[in-house]
Structures are given as structure tokens and as C-alpha cells.
TrEMBL record:
InterPro entries: Peripla_BP_I, SBP_2_dom. It comes from Aquipseudomonas alcaligenes (strain ATCC 14909 / DSM 50342 / CCUG 1425 / JCM 20561 / NBRC 14159 / NCIMB 9945 / NCTC 10367 / 1577) (Pseudomonas alcaligenes). Residues 1-20 form the signal peptide. This is ABC transporter substrate-binding protein. Keywords: Signal. GO terms for biological process: transmembrane transport. Residues 23-286 form the Periplasmic binding protein domain. One of its GO terms (cellular component) is cell envelope. It is found in: Cell envelope. The lineage of its organism: Bacteria, Pseudomonadati, Pseudomonadota, Gammaproteobacteria, Pseudomonadales. GO terms for molecular function: carbohydrate binding. It holds the Pfam family Peripla_BP_4. Belongs to the bacterial solute-binding protein 2 family.
Length: 350
């Protein structure tokens, strides 16, 4: 009898391992882009912690490549249990249509469908039942917090230029909305111009070279990410201008700049969002539906401002090969009484 019980336990363990949830992530970024590489790294880290299988396909910021990757998943004889996608360039509805009858469960992360898109396509588990959920971060709040901290340093009649990302990207639009909210609270600050630097340093540098001489009184720069902030900084230094900057990201370079005071306001934390999504899918596969713990569409308030000390500490933590974050601690399978997911970078900052 004891041998039979032992055999059944071993068989259950083997079956559980063989049936580990498999995930494909349609990463929209470049395969050499630091942010999206780190984003995928934390997803792989979560997959390892949770005994899941993860494949990452990079879209190289090209709609055709993203859709080609999607078709590759559909044509594969070994289809994943879950597909994670980003509504970059507003491709979400097309991806939902492609996978409608695939049997693969879909999950939106980072940028979900806009309100306008959902009027046609519906939300999770509506028109497309296999679209089971979404997880986004607090981009509007981050844009607001960055702007608010920057504008607090402004005197009367201060002038600002702003650099947003790719125009047809929900995260860029939301961060802009946060900027505009802060500006309404500081009517003494004049926004001279908002440009789309497409998240790239070289693009923002070229724009700033032409823009800054037009506005000699500008002393504040709001930037929706770190690369564009560094592009503007390069142009300003060449012109002998001393400006105050915001940035958003987790690169070693921007954390160092915040620690040294060259970047005055920095928001970060969203780089673990994909890892948090993996936790939710792990729980779903285990029969613990994340919808019962916060709903089908959830927002993780990961983005927060970090001061110079926190930036220095985070920089040292992210240099570690294992990154030092155990995603199991966020899972309902480990904490059955969990009512709301609380994935965060607090553990990295301690």
C-alpha cells in the first residue's frame, strides 16, 4: 500500500511537471533594446520560479514582424497554453481576431485595448472569450508624478518642453495625460512644445538640437523615458544649456544619473510587470482564477518615483545575476487567502 501511494505521488509530480503552463510573449521591442530585454528577463525569472515555460518573440518595433511572429505561433504544432501580447501601435484587436478560434488563452500586458477599441472588440471574456485578462501599470499617474515633482521646482513664468514616445502607443498617451493634468495645476508654467521622440535617444537629440535654440527661456524638460532624456541632455550640453529633467525607466545609466543628480526626477518599477503577469497566469493554470482577486482587467501601481538613495540601491540590486526577486511570494497558490495581487519592486528597494 505504501509503495502504491509513493508511486501515485511520483506519478502526480511527473504529470504536473509535464503539464507546466507554457507561455509565448509577443515582445514588441527590439531584441537589443535594454528595457524590453530586462522586461523579458524578469518574465523568464518568474517562469523559473513558478515552473512555467516561456518563449519570447521580439517584434523589433515593426508591426509586420509582430504579426509574423503571431502567425508563427498559430502555425506551430506545439501551441502554447497562453499568449501574452502588448497593444503596441494599437495591434491588439488584430491579434484578438487572429487567435479567436485558436484555443490559446490571451492576456494583454503593459498596454491593453483603449476604451475606443473596446467599444468594438469588447473587454476580456466578452466578444473574445479566450482573451482572459489584462494587466497594465499606472502610466497616467507616473506622467503626473514626474511632472508634479518637476513643476514644484519651477518659479514664476517657467517654460517646459516635453518629449513623448511613439504617438500610437497607449503608454505614451497616458503619460502625456498625466503631464497635462499636472500642468493644469501649475498654470504659471508654459508648455512650449511636445514632441514625439519615439523612445529613442538619437531622435530626441536631433529634435532638441533644433528646438532648444527657439526657446532660450526653457529650463524644464519632461521626458516619458530615459533614452529621450539623454538625447535632450546631449543637445543641451552641446549648447551650454543647464536644464532640469524627468525620466522613466530602470537602465543602469538612468539610475546612475538619478543617483548623481543629473536626472532630477525618475519614475521606475514597471519593468517587472511581465513577471507579475506570469504569476497571474500561473495561478489561472492552477485553477485559481486571478479574476477573483482583482478582476479580469487589473492595474498594477508599479511605477513610483525613486530618490537618489533608492536609485543607487536599485542599481546594485539589478546588477545581480538573479535580480533577487522571488515571484512565488506574489502567487495565490502560495497564499490562498490572497484577495488582491500586490506585485511590486519594494523587495528590491529594501
Amino acid at each position: 500500500m505504501a509503495l502504491r501511494v509513493l508511486f501515485l505521488c511520483c506519478l502526480s509530480l511527473v504529470c504536473a511537471t509535464a503539464q507546466a503552463a507554457s507561455v509565448v510573449f509577443l515582445n514588441p521591442g527590439f531584441s537589443h533594446e535594454r528595457f524590453w530585454l530586462d522586461y523579458s528577463h524578469f518574465m523568464q525569472d518568474a517562469a523559473g520560479d513558478l515552473d512555467m515555460q516561456l518563449e519570447v518573440l521580439y517584434g523589433e518595433r515593426d508591426n509586420e514582424v509582430i504579426l509574423r511572429n503571431a502567425r508563427q505561433v498559430l502555425a506551430s504544432p506545439h501551441k502554447p497554453d497562453y499568449l501574452i501580447f502588448v497593444n503596441e501601435q494599437y495591434l491588439g484587436p488584430e491579434i484578438l481576431r487572429m487567435f479567436a478560434d485558436s484555443g490559446i488563452r490571451l492576456f494583454a500586458v503593459h498596454s491593453s485595448l483603449t476604451d475606443e477599441q473596446q467599444q468594438l472588440a469588447g473587454g476580456p471574456r466578452d466578444k473574445y472569450p479566450n482573451w482572459i485578462g489584462s494587466l497594465v501599470t499606472n502610466d497616467e499617474e507616473a506622467g503626473y508624478l514626474m511632472a508634479k515633482a518637476l513643476l514644484r521646482t519651477a518659479g514664476d513664468d517657467a517654460e517646459l518642453v516635453a518629449f513623448s514616445g511613439v504617438k500610437n502607443t497607449p503608454s505614451a498617451t497616458l503619460r502625456e495625460e498625466g503631464l497635462q493634468r499636472a500642468l493644469r495645476e501649475h498654470p504659471q508654467v508654459r508648455l512650449r512644445q511636445l514632441l514625439y521622440g519615439e523612445w529613442r535617444q538619437q531622435r530626441a537629440y536631433e529634435q532638441a538640437k533644433l528646438l532648444l535654440p527657439r526657446y532660450p527661456q526653457v529650463n524644464l524638460v519632461w521626458s516619458a523615458n530615459d533614452e529621450m532624456a539623454f538625447g535632450v541632455m546631449q543637445a543641451a550640453e552641446e549648447q551650454g544649456r543647464h536644464l532640469r529633467y524627468t525620466a522613466l525607466n530602470n537602465s543602469q545609466r538612468v539610475l546612475q544619473a538619478r543617483a548623481e543628480g543629473r536626472i532630477g526626477v525618475l519614475a521606475t518599477g514597471h519593468f517587472i510587470l511581465g513577471g507579475c503577469a506570469m504569476v497571474m497566469l500561473h495561478d489561472h493554470a492552477a485553477g485559481m482564477d486571478f479574476a477573483e482577486r482583482g478582476g479580469k482587467a487589473q492595474m498594477a501601481r508599479l511605477l513610483r518615483l525613486v530618490d537618489a538613495r533608492e536609485a543607487k540601491h536599485l542599481m546594485s540590486r539589478l546588477e545581480r545575476p538573479d535580480k533577487g526577486l522571488d515571484f512565488r511570494r506574489f502567487s495565490a497558490t502560495r497564499n490562498p487567502a490572497l484577495r488582491q495581487y500586490a506585485c511590486s519592486i519594494d523587495e528590491l528597494l529594501r
